[in-house]
Design a protein that fits this description.
Number of helices: 10
CATH architecture of the largest domain: 3-Layer(aba) Sandwich
Number of strands: 10
Radius of gyration: 24 Å
CATH class of the largest domain: Alpha Beta
Distance between the termini: 57 Å
Number of domains: 2
Largest sheet: 5 strands, mixed
CATH superfamily of the largest domain: Bacterial extracellular solute-binding protein, family 7
CATH topology of the largest domain: D-Maltodextrin-Binding Protein, domain 2
Length: 269
Amino acid sequence: MNTFSKSLVSAAVLSTALTAATTTVQAADRVLLKTPIAFGSHLPALGTPIKWVSEQLPVMSDGSVKMKIYEPGKLVGAKEILDAVSSGKVNSGYATAGYWQGKMPAAALFSAVPFGPEAGEYMAWLYYGNGMNLYQEMYDTNGFNVKVIPCAIISPETSGWFKKEINTPEDLKGLNMRFFGLGASVMEKLGVSTSQLPGGEIFGALEKGAIDATEFSQPAIDKLLGLHKIAKYNYFPGWHQQATVFELLVNKDAWGKMSKGQQAIVENT
């Protein structure tokens, strides 16, 4: 084989090797976030934000970051999302911190505060008042291997749906009610027995008589769950959730393997 032929062969081999290496690096750099969600993607303001994020991530990252969402209960239950992300069973999840109040009492402060801040004030505290540092510190000090990213925030809800008319505080005594976060502690002081059911379980609980009343979200959202068909009395304005924050949790090991650019895209989408 002459020198020219050897050069051509060497160039071909080198080109093939570089192409293979580049392909391997590109494949390794791509990220797929498998994301179970706590709220159905058909629910306005609750589930639609994460659906929008899943659509925008591949566009903004030029395909290097993608997200596949799993409807509530399809991969893990809504209340199991934090543990699943922390353990690495899934690499991300979408919920609200108030769901972890039983594990970490402080979690309620990062989802909704009765008579508390509205959306703008909440975001100002998180991003300019050391809130985000405290938010992440809460997960870290409790041993959860997650990176937390605020993903959405909604406006005030109503005070709830009741099977019977409520005219005085005494009418609340003895009721079994689905209630969220710190507001549940207030209701318990008024004699209400509370539980925090995932959205998909509320209608069945009302129908079977396991609960007498419930709050969930805003009327347009509650209507999709059919709450008005059983509980005819809806009272507002809501006092317990002036604004509610929703979070994207990413497994810290998965987060650490992402490039700075990919992390920035996920944080800012």
